[in-house]
Amino acid sequence: MVDHGEAGPVRCNRCKAYMCPYMQFIEGGRRFQCGFCSCVTEVPPQYFQHLDHTGKRVDCYDRPELSLGTYEFLATVDYCKNNKVPEPPAFIFLIDVSYNAVKSGMVNIVCNELKSLLDLLPRENPEMDSVVRVGFVTYNKVLHFYNVKSTLAQPQMLVVSDVSDMFVPLLDGFLVNVNESRQVIESLLEQIPEMFADTRETETVFGPVIQAGLEALKAADCAGKLFVFHTSLPIAEAPGKLKNREDKKLIGTDKEKTQFQPQVGFYNNLAKECVAQGCCVDLFLFPNQYVDVATLGVVPVSTGGSVYKYTYFQAQTDQERFLKDLRRDVQKQVGFDAVMRVRTSTGIRATDFFGSFFMNNTTDVELAGLDCDKAITVEFKHDDKLSEETGALMQCAVLYTSCSGQRRLRVHNMAVNCCSQLADLYRNCETDTIINYFAKYAFRGVANNPTKAVRDTLVNQCAQILACYRKNCASPSSAGQLILPECMKLLPVYLNCVMKSDVLLPGADVSLDDRAYLRQLIGCMDVADTHVFFYPRLLPVMKLESGSLPVALRDSEERLSKGGIYLMETGLHLFLWVGASVQQELLLNIFGTPSFSQIDPNMISLPVLDNPFSQRLREIIDSFRAQRSRYMKLMVVKQEDRTELIFKHFLVEDKSASGGASYVDFLCHMHKEIRQLLS
Question: Is the pTM of this model over 0.90?
């Protein structure tokens, strides 16, 4: 953290890049030349320092901004909205209390959990209390606001039934400090499940719910986050009302793309208002049928929020996954009201961005909320001369409000080498990163193009990359040979996985909501997450050693043996596949029973047994879960059991039920495409 006092960060006069290791000090340290645009700027008197005999400032290694790739500046009031210091942020919990929500147990679980969770709101100093304030709303087709002011003996409910013109019926007592209002809040969380226990109201609204949270943040003049717990398609009469439009007959036709587009324009406009206020929305969905994730997800995706989906939610089997997700979501470090800008040296420029955010112009990426579970993929275009001597520079600056209400600038700097030989380029390729980009590019494309056209474009782009290598870098050989660059040997495997994913090639059992959900999820994944999502990790767990993982196997049915047990991780699911003729001793060690037929396929966690094997296997599962931002539920799959179909879907090297090619077939297809391009 760098604090330059009232003067604020030192920047280039012309391109406004922030002080970083690429600035060259000249004239004895009185001026500096920008590494990005070469403009020369005066050094402010309070920042002046002498240079040593090599031309470096003598304080170079004492200053993070002159010696590190990443650092933060404390921002001055000029960097704040309306030039005033921000208020501390608020978290508002909005709970659906319609019939489905109460019956599934969701309302009860949420209210119970919030009692303890409110002590774990994000804070920067673990010794101090969090400054985040909280508020509570319940809703079905009307909204109930709660006054939880600390001076009240009991919480008060205020009902707003005119949902077409949303307003917050109270100012004082809606957003409160948890410690001051603890007793009133606990009393409220006890009462909510009781109040709605016998409800018969099945209809819900959704648009007004977000409007309510947004209006509350506006009234308090602060940024914040809405946690919305929602169950069904909002069909009640209200702004943002939706109808069921799922139509399996559209799959594979030119009209399929409309199913990925929002049904109404209302939510795009609402998202824009949310971003302007710094209101981030996280949506927890508990659907039993179609809820139109493509439309309900518009506001979360545009505000830097998340969508969590628990289809056919059942308290006893899904409670753990939901609560682990909720706890992480409430506790994690977050920033608000953020703007990101990427600057580059001459020769390249940022032209496209993928992720959960909003853009009003071509340069500013606006994020109402910012957290550690989202990545942004940036595409650069080579648009001017580059030189091998100077390379290329990038600076990513993010201006945001911390969860303690402090305005800051986080700066990332990166210098990359440039080469003039194609062979050098292919030698340094990052296949996993290319796949991350291709997947996001393709998944974004399905809202505007038929899925077949999107798949064809992917094959074509991949073929061009590989044909270009073959033509310009490979030693001459017969056309019958497939020659791939060392770094890209796996590009066809992974590309095939993207091509036959549920978004681009759905099986008969995949719902439109599942596809829309995955499409939104992949949009903000980092490289490690897309890697394991498209090509799951498959480990044989017959022999386990402490300290190291078994060597992973290829995702194909022919790698599984009847006498084996295998653990598969996809980043969203965990499977333990058990062969029909596994040794009794192994079954005893893991399941506590020697018989294959006695293993309960419905178990969601392995029994805690006192043997080294059981301990190590559970350790591995815990370590996998710790690496992912969403809790992975464990599914035990017995060979020949009906659940095996779900597991086989993730054996991505085999032919898929939806008609996706096996890896071998796809490789032949790729080879043909490359040959065609070369001839």
Answer: yes
